[in-house]
# Entry
Amino acid sequence: MSILEDKLVTHIAPRKLANEFLPQSQDSLRLIIDTIPTMAWTVRPDGAVDFVNQRWLDYAGLSLEEEIEEPTRVIHPEDLPRVMEKRLRDMAAAEPSEDEIRLRRADGEYRWFLVRTVPLRDEIHDELGYALAAIKLEFTALLRELPVDKGPVGQ
# Structure
């Protein structure tokens, strides 16, 4: 094998292998993200949604286009001002955060979720956006909404 052929094989073979492996790994990652038992999505540094997993779309009963167009449509109207204010503060701080909010299901009912947000950074720590996950809190939230019966004093 000539020196030129050797250099071509040395440089092209790994690239070819990577090009063949990358779509498979992307498909595997997408399958994992779509089937994890939680709703997950990402937003860009400007706050625009750029990814949602299938579980999120199924829960909300929306298409990807609808979610990207108006991502706040599923947040309970009473929670929206507080959520947006907190999101702006949290994004400015660029630190992990969490919030409890009501999200509308496809059937129109609202359910409580704990939404955790983590900044996404590249290898030199430039901000790429945020990863979010929503964990259902139905039982805990319902207990919080029940009136507390303090009963007679001294019992």
